[in-house]
Amino acid sequence: MYKNALRGGIRTAKQAWRLKNEIGKLNLELAKANTDFEQHLCEETAHLNELLSSKQFVKVQKQFYRDYSSVSLGAPLKSSDAPLLGDLCNQYRAILAYTSADVVPGQKQGQPQHQQIRGAHKQQETRMQQQEEVGGMAQKLEFKRLPTNVVPKHYELLLQPDLEAFTFKGKTIVQVQVKKPTKQIVLNALDIIIEEAQLEFECTKMKADRIVYSTDAETATLEFEKVIPAETAGVLQMSFTGELNDKMKGFYRSKYFSASGEERYAGVTQFEATDARRCFPCWDEPAIKATFDITLVVPKNRVALSNMPVKKEDDLEGGLRRVRFDRTPIMSTYLVACVVGEYDFVEGKSEDGIIVRVFTPVGKREQGQFALDVATKVLPFYKDYFNIAYPLPKMDLIAISDFSAGAMENWGLVTYRETFVLVDPKNTSLMRKQSIALTVGHEIAHQWFGNLVTMEWWTHLWLNEGYASFVEFLCVHHLFPEYDIWTQFVTDMYTRALELDSLKNSHPIEVPVGHPSEIDEIFDEISYNKGASVIRMLHDYIGEDDFRKGMNIYLTRHQYGNTSTEDLWTALQEASSKNVAEVMSSWTQYKGFPVVSVESEQKGKTQRILRLSQRKFTADGSQADEDCLWVVPISVSTSRDPTAIAKTFLLDKPSMEVVLDGVTDSDWIKINPGTVGYYRTRYSKEMLEQLMPAVKNMELPPLDRLGLIDDMFAMVQAGHASTADVLALVDGYRNETNYTVWTAITNSLTNLHVLISHTDLMEDFHRFGRNLYEPVAQRLGWEPREGENHLDTLLRSLVLTRLVSFRSNDVIEVARQRFRSHINGTQPLPADLRTTCYKAALQDGNEQIFEEMLALYRTTDLHEEQDRISRALGCSTDAKLLRRVIDFAMSGEVRAQDSVFVIVAVAINPKGRDMAWEFFKSSNKQLLERYQGGFLLTRLIKYLIENYASEEKAKEVEEFFRVTQIPGCERTVSQAVETIRLNAAWLERDREKLSTYLKSV
Ligand SMILES: [Zn+2]
Asked: Which residues bind Zn(2+) (predicted)?
């Protein structure tokens, strides 16, 4: 039986790990194997070896790390506990011994030990469970959502954190509705211990006899002696305890310093996507909504916040205070929030009477003012835009010192990383202010789109994030028209999405996801940036009025409920009478996007025939494997009126012809004006030649100049055009004045810089760069002009920083002098120019400069300034100093949330590239311990490896990640390795011509 059972049952690594975990929890010490048994074990080991090299294994291993860490309630993972084959086999031995007791003689001897450990009941039940799993595992281990036979209607939730012992206790009283008779209630719980569970219904009180946890499913099953009848309303009471962990998820601790420099901790929650279950037992799925009465018991002198305003406060014994909050509306668990700590705040009121507060570290109240101004204006803006009032009476924003993401939209209590909310007027750059405005706009948009109407399941996450990432621009455009933010959308969101989405290892916007480990992986640039870009395209296709009307239909129809992507299409379709679902489905369901090739032919004096065709764009220029056909909304402009749309139509076939009237043979034609359509355009040579003068004389609007150059560079990378030709085109942008166009050029040249760093052409490339950027730098100068426009300020930092890296002696000289005056206090640098000057000083600086920078870091307590300094350190060219940067990043002086970015700065410096990679190879276990997977580690891995450009390196990286499993970074590694190969091919293809070109200019 055991042989068959294993053959039939353990086919996947997932199954193997699942068994391993179950067994591990029971602490089995059963393995007294006989020879016969050993032989079978050998066979299974061979099978396991196969599994270990499979892709699936990598995925499952991520889960293992999660499980492991939850077993120890937050203790860091020790490298010696990493899953090794031998370890796995030992566990296997135990499984075999245990589950095959009836057929393998002599195996029962271990049983009494078990009973001593865990008690007979539990042991037997686990055994049954395992036997069942071994037999029918394939079905059993599939991820399942919670059963719907019992659902919560209302939670009373009490939490009492201990900010010194880093634990918390809690109690919840849940009103539940029983829909089908059952003896079990299954809900989510992870890393918490439910001490008691009791159900009361129809004058009956029943205690749960058993509480069975599944770490893999992240559930607790409460088992009752008697059946709970259907159609019953019950009250489920549970008390529980947990650890205030340091993982920045669930209910966690966040370190800060008091005014006197004493180290203290706040208790903070971060639940999205699936971590409410780490704080209290609950039905932790977005569609299982309920109302909440939250109560916090906290030390008297601490601020206590939650989603709703305070209803009542009482003093308790022992220096404690009980704070009760008003009842929330019906909402999802991932939006529940609590914060307990020491904060100051500023308060305001929106014009429609909502109280808005921004909580800051103690003594930094004034740094909340900018976010407060933005938030008080944003609330009425959305109220008006959606035509639905903000549903809560208050809106709190709070800066959290340890925070892994940028911000989190908890309903009524939005939490932020400090750099995403605090503005210090003297030390905050304009760029940072702008991203704070966008972030506040984003999170507040979620209060409607996400919180009031929530995705039914995480597969539709893109809907939340794509939409909020679109609408944040709409809102900032309204509040700060001078930012010209829509133009920046294209370089910040759109082109980044296209770049990633052209890789074979991209994924569609809508991804079926189940288990939490899969959900974490989709909070990526595809969900956010591509999501926002296709919504922008749709907005443009149906027009602002209908889009707005559709939003109102959607939000009104589904308020306090849940939706899927189709529900939004239905509403927008109703509002616009356009076939939204048909147009949009190809964009959400296929990965990648098309390249639209276009040729034109003049017919008579005033007609031009356009011949368009579409095919999937691939970064390496190869024929795509899949046969995808998009429904592409196309618009066209001409030199007759560069800012007007001359024609729009849908390209829904592989190719088509369109006739443009009123166009003479000297007119240029631009496809995708405004760079709104999510596709690349490839013009015929003649069409491109006609367009170029319009770039030079800036007759073509900025977004079109930008889109054109970005498309051209994509064609170069794909091998459809030569780098030298495109650089000659870039030269045509020398008179360019627009910040965003310069950003696009800079981004493209940064990619090229990576290639050049693998050649001996660096000097020539620097000269090319200086020639290109110097005219605009001269125009702008170092000093901001009176009343200068916002974008010129941004452009100045961009251009001067580029010239520092292109080794412009003049710029470097001035930058160093300014740095000196800043350091000795004679003239502090404006925030916008600090990065430029820091880099100029550090780039060829000695140890003394390095020490000065560290001293500067240590004297500031503004997170933004610490970021700026620590990220500039990596531009040093001295290997000894770069080594120190890495050590510094890993020291206690840099918060775990920030170290990654400091190391990235070293990695993207060609001089530090190998060092950073070697460091990672030797310290990956330590890094994994620190981040336990998660997006910070993924980010690091991406930048460490994607800048290589040889097949050998691609192989080395692949081999490293094959042997060293880092859970949760599978896709990133494949994407980065793909990029290495693209770089290698690009370099090989263009090296010679590029050399000739660069040496000639
Ligand atoms: Zn968001």
From this structure: 442, 446, 465
